[in-house]
Amino acid sequence: MNYPKEIRRYCPKCNTHTVQKVSLYKAGKRRGSALGERRHAEDKKGYGGQKFPKLAKPAKTTKKATRILTCTVCKKKFNTLGIRIRKFELVAV
Fold it and tell me: Strands of 6-11's sheet, edge to edge?
């Protein structure tokens, strides 16, 4: 799916329609010191085997593409609901 890099959309902060830049959400680097990571490592450690099933074959064939819209006036960012799609491409219109 081709999607424009800039769209004109309502900005709740500016309370008017503004041009907004579109970018794709990218997950940040995972931290080993995060509480969830530490808990998961603790569950896997020691005797008793793997606590969670290791995925042999992933169930989903696509990832959700989440768009981040940045208002060019106030620089506020808005996340949109992810679209499950194979290929998502930002194009200049």
Answer: 6-11, 16-24, 67-71, 77-79
Pull the structure tokens for residue 72.
């060019």
Q: What is the pLDDT of residues 6-43, one digit of tens each?
A: 999 999 999 999 999 999 999 999 999 999 999 988 88
CATH of domain 1-26+62-93: 3.10.450.80
pTM of the model: 0.75
Terminal-residue alpha carbon distance, the chain: 14
Residue burial 14-36, b: 16+ Cβ < 10 Å; e: rest: eeeebebbbeeeeeeeeeeeeee
Instruction: Name the residue ranges covered by the structural domains of the chain.
Output: 1-26+62-93
Position with higher pLDDT, 70 vs 50: 70
